[in-house]
Design brief:
The chain is of the alpha/beta class. It is built from three helices and five strands, in the order βαβαβββα. The protein has one domain: Rossmann fold, CATH 3.40.50. Helix content is 32%, strand content 23%. This is CHAT domain-containing protein.
Length: 114
Amino acid sequence: MPPVQRILILAANPLDSSRLRLEEELREIESVLQRAKKRDLFELKPQTATRPSDIQRALLDYNPQIVHFCGHGEGTQGLVFEDDRGNAKFVDSLALANLFGSIWVSGRSESKNA
């Protein structure tokens, strides 16, 4: 049997941003995986109200093969996470690319949805 693929879901919906239905998106992802024939090959690791400081820790703790982002994005400005008070905190695209590059070995996948 192939190894289990861990999917890290980074979700953020800051208080000072337009409201997104992140719980519904997470539920849909879980539902699709539950109906999949090879569902035992995937393990979801959701990280909600994600702060920039949570990203590296989650990558190291879970060692995911797939990362999915649920939240707001601003193109080259990056993705919107939350600060300690729940307000928007941008993490620019280059910083994210450098973080993923420094942690992940070649052959792993990255996915973002913004």
